[in-house]
Amino acid sequence: MSPLNIQLRMSRTVIFDTHITGHNLEYLHHIYSEAINRTDETFIFAIPEVFKDVRHKLSWREASNISFHYITHDELRPTICGFWRRPLINCCILRRIVKQYNADSVILIVLAQILPFVFLLPRRVSISGILYYIYLYKWNSLGIYSRIVEVLNYLCIKYTSNVKRVFLLNDYVAVRYFNKKYKTSKFCYLLDPVFNKVSPDLSISRKSLGIPERSRVYFHFGSMSYRKGTLDVLKCIEYLDPINTYIFAGVVAPDIKEEFYNRVQKLNERYHILLFDEFCSFEKIASFCQLSNFLFLPYKEVYQSSGVIGYASLYNVPVISTKNGMLGKLVRRYKLGWSFDFSNIKAVCKEISSIECKSKPIPVDYVKTHSVSEFSKVLLCQYND
What is the pLDDT of residue 305? Predict the structure, then answer.
């Protein structure tokens, strides 16, 4: 039998994502590293062409069973108006890719990218994906319209027969709740993986960054945005000791960029702020973690897990987080640091100032139970549990 015929018999899976920021790139890399080993299957990574600009941040070994399909900026640009335009456009793009490659299955890094239009995909294609935003923790604060939208999305998941698995990160409670509520077994638990420990960038140190010996270092990283509480970190700085150092590492979102830079400019007159408005390498993040005393996570939206807490456990750096929702629950469950109500910034900062540096060793349990290998194998359906 010719190699071509063998290739035609191999199952084809499309890995789809429309963003290459924060954990998205990490998750894609995790899946890629596992897919390399599955030589009896073919994988097509359908991702934005901007991936070419950040590909060098991680190692992507060549593999004969993996190819890339780049989605152009023009394809992702909205051409219609209305609330549903973004997921509808994404679904149409994915539908074309599925047909082009005659795919058997699709894994969405962000399932919400195509909700509620998942039913538009070919019925022969098996669909699975990760759902991050869990309305269970926000139901009481949602308006009528938002509630209708959320329930509609979940009903589409239930009644679209080829949606096989919907993964919820770090949340057994929500898995049980949604399976019971919607009388299904599609919702599955998925651990939020802790990236394998990397060697730090040796050029980065307290000395090279000009950090005083007595300075406490607060580190805030990832996508800098309103929902991540980035502006609240800046508000906190005003009530903390000027001798401290504050490191921001990650791309600043357009919606807060102007206010963020205005605040930083004013604060820099008195406080030591180090800003890296870029997609930082994992080596750089590792270096910042190792020289920091605390990771700052005053998230506004706390209805999902956060990859940052994995770094806390990996590098033994306690977190200061919001106390509400999934994030607060994980911090308390795994004893990863302190959680506060950030509705009163001044009061919170008084409590933060009283915390002794390194007074709370971080257990390694979280790292042990959240491996990259397990995450990737579950997503690629190597396990049936």
Answer: 75
